[in-house]
Here is the input.
Amino acid sequence: MENEEILQEEQSILTLTDENGQEINFEYLDCIEYQGTEYLVLMPEDSNEIVILEIQPVDEENENYIAVESEDILNAVYGIFKDRYKDVLQFED
Here is the structure.
C-alpha cells in the first residue's frame, strides 16, 4: 500500500512552541496542499486528535505554522487526509 509506506517513511516528531512558550511534541502525519496553500497534519503526542496548521513561509529556510480558523478549510483538508489514508488508518467522526 503506497499510502502506508508514505506514512511510515515520513513519520517524525516535530517540537513546536505555543503562544505561552510551552514546547509541544507532534507526530508529523502529512502535508496537504489545498487551494494553493500547504497545511501540516499533526497529532500531538499522547493524543488521538488531529491538528491542522497552515504553513506560512518566512524565507527560504524558515516557516511559521498558523492555526486554521476556517471550519470549511479544516473540513476540506481533513477530508483529503482521510481519503488518502482510508486504507491505512481508522477514523472516528
Q: What stands out?
A: The chain has one domain: 2-84.
